[in-house]
Design brief:
360 residues, mainly beta, five-stranded antiparallel β-sheet, 23 strands, disordered N terminus
Length: 360
Amino acid sequence: MIKKNKIILTAILSLATAFSSAQSFASADAPSVNNTANKEADLYSQSAIKIPWASLGFNVIKYLGNTYLFSREATSNDYPSKTTVSSGTIGFNNKGNSGYGASAKHDVHVDYAKNEIDAFGQTSLLNWLDKISIIITDSSGNDVVSSTATHNQHVNYSAPNSGWYTVRWVNTAATNWDLWVQVWKFGEPGYPTFYKTSPNNTPQLIRKTDGKEVLAVEENNGKTYILPSKTHKNYASINKKNSLTAKDLYNQLYDNELKEQVSVFKDFVVGDNIIFEDEIQSVSFDSNNNYTILGFKDASGDILRWAFNGNLTKELQANSKIMLQFKVVQDIGTFETLDYLKEARESKAAPSIEKYIVKK
């Protein structure tokens, strides 16, 4: 009954660091990046390229002298109920490596009124500071949705009219994100005009990785959680009394079969203590929010950032080691997290380091 025709969309991913002060985002950080954004806009306007998005690779801006444009393959799928596309890893605010700025956008076309645009981002489950702004703009330039989301938290918009829409992601931290946008075919002939899944719904297939089905559920907090594979739990045998580094923590959540992080630790259960010991890669104080950000390198090569209340720059320095103690706690349902992360996210404030630091 569901119409199988592919949705014809334009998939254009552009990266820039200049965006409107009226929208309360960061200003441009270099004239050369501004020039890059202007050139990109001329080359890749909506009218310039119209090809099916399900088979399209991404065109992205890269800041590297005067060379700024290159192409890369993206993840895309066309399902009976929706079409999805993913950016792959984007290292925001990383001029020294990827050269990307603080903003990404993707133009999409919906064929029927009530088609639903669904945008979200994925990053490390251990990054507390990583939040991303998601904005959906209609063809008249009006921001119809503007929201701040965390890992796997979806921002949705039921399009009242067919036509062009733009999804933008804005992130001011130097962190990696995989950006996703999908269009649900609500309102099309043979498909319900409105459809809403209930919380704690039956696991749903969201994609396949190397032939392995990746299933997810939506919980009461509005976030989507990836279900771990059957081989994930107790994947490795370790001595729980030994300390873990940021790389070890990352690997505890990394499902080797699905090739992505899940909110379940391999070798720990709720109530277990985890001793964390690692070398601090960076220390910075945010005077506006009165917290100190500690950076650690995880297994993906990204910098894991944790914030603690107050100015700790005199007590803690880069290239020195620190020991912290965390407890594995329930996040929601069967999913797990660290007590530090849960406290930070629920209070929306940087916790005191005194609660977690182990003094030798």
